[in-house]
Amino acid sequence: MPDTQKPHWTESRRSGRLARVRSRAGVEMTGLHAPADGQAPLLLCLHGLSGNLGTSFVVDFLSAPELEGVHLLTVESSAHGNIAMARRGDPPRYSLGGSAFEIFDECIGDLAAWVDYAASKTRGPIILLGHSLGAAKVVRYQAETADPRVRGLVLASAADLKGAFWAMHGDASATRFMDEARAMLRRGEGRALMGEDCVVGLLKQRISAATFIDRFEDGKPSDVFDFFGRGSIRAFEDLAKVTLPLLALYGSSGEIVGGGDVARALSLLEQRAARCPAFSSAIVPGNHWYLGSEPLVAQTIAAWLAGLAS
């Protein structure tokens, strides 16, 4: 019997080219570049935990008339997906990668490779947009490198994954998981996955022992934001080093901040971005991925970019 269901697909207003770069760690990463004029700004979009270059609201940017004059570069990190195939080395070989196995500071080499690529495509300013965990990564990159080619940051739904993990599992279970991960590392089992009850993020994703330690042990570089009142000894240190204009965005519900209080999270970001010359913010209807408000997100970013140029 033929399938009578109406097919559904969407096509963007703009076309682009696939690009492949290699991180400092030798991992090949894929991106999509939709070009604009040679001196136009370039918006480099990095996904969050387990995301990829097709993160839904970023793909919608390709159909946003407000961003037609902007280079759009949506990229994958070396830790795209939760458990995903990766190609690395010279000659290349295939292995398992993804967020389950990532070490946070590898984001510096990832972004360096993509900024190099971006700089070869425009003489205009490069703007880094990081979504969720990606927001922590763009802050970390700029704090460590002070890259003069980068002229602004967009923190899209900046997330406190450590606070959310403790809130999801409770202190007793989270502490038990930490003990288990440390024991696994001592046995040389860092790449082994934690038990199925030890999941992270809104989508309850898997995580290896080594990545668990790297993401959740006190004092680690991955602890960029504290929105749960954890009294972190590390959070906001990198943000305090950023000397660029910032735009912070949140959805109105389902965000990874303490109690879902996005107004408080925005206030904390503004207070802690002490060297930021201009801080802007917006709350749009929708969830952590701005479902239903993607055009408004594009309009908000376009208006902010226009303000930077004026």
From TrEMBL:
Enumerate the spans annotated as AB hydrolase-1 domain.
Answer: 43-295
Under the heading InterPro entries, the entry gives:
AB_hydrolase_1, AB_hydrolase_fold
Q: What sections of the sequence does the record tag as coiled-coil?
A: none
Instruction: Cite the SUPFAM superfamilies for this sequence.
Output: alpha/beta-Hydrolases (SSF53474)
Its name, as the record gives it, is DUF1749 domain-containing protein
Q: What's the source species for this entry?
A: Bordetella hinzii
